[in-house]
Amino acid sequence: MRIREKLLKLGTTPLSNEELLTLIIRTGTAKENALKISRKILKKHTVEKFPNLTLEDLQKIPGLGSAKSCSIIGSMELAKRILLKKEHNLLLSPSAVHQEMKSTWDKKREYCYVFFLNSHKQITQKELISVGTINSTLAHPREVFTSAIKNHAHEIIISHNHPSGNITPSPEDLALTKQLKNSGDILGIELIDHVIVTQDSFFSFKEQGLLEQK
Fold first, then answer.
1. Which of 35, 62, 89 is where one domain is finished?
2. Which of 11, 16, 22, 88 has its CB surrounded by the most CB atoms within 10 Å?
3. CA proximity to 72, closest of 98, 52, 89
C-alpha cells in the first residue's frame, strides 16, 4: 500500500517517521525514491533534532536539494508555531506568566507586555506595549486598549519586570492597574491580572485581591 493510500485509509497514527517525512519531501531523485532519502535523513538526524536543523544541515545529505530542504524546514517551523500557540493558550496562571516573561528578567529597564485572551480564555497574542526606565514604565491605557480592540481581545493580562529585584508594586503600578481595570470595565475588556516579575519571584494583583479594589 502506498503511503498516501495508507494515510487516507488508516490515518496518520500507523505511519512511521520515515513515511511521514516521505510525504513532506514528496519525490525522490533519479537514483533514489523519496522513502530511501527519508531513511538516509533519519539515519543522520534523529526526529528530536529536527526542530533545530538548518538548510545547510539538510543540503549536506545526498538527494536533498534546496526545494526538499525548504519543505522540511517549513514544516518544522509550522509545527513550532502550533506548539507555541498551544503553550500560549494554556498560559493563565501568574507562574506561567512569570516564565513567559523570562526574557525580561535581566533587563536594566522595565518592559511592559500585554497578553490578549479570547472568549475561551485562551491567549491569542502577546505584545510589547512600552519600554520604560530602571524604575518606571510608560504604559498608558490608551495604547493597551487600542491593541486589545485591534486583536479582538475579550480579556487582558498585563505584566512588566522590576529590574531592581523588588516585586512590591510602586504607586505608579497601583495607579496604572486601577486605570486599566476601570477602562476595561467601561470597554467590556476585563483586566484579569497584572503580574510584576523578577528573576526569582512574581507579584500577582489578582492573587493579592488588588483587582477587587475600586
1. 89
2. 22
3. 52
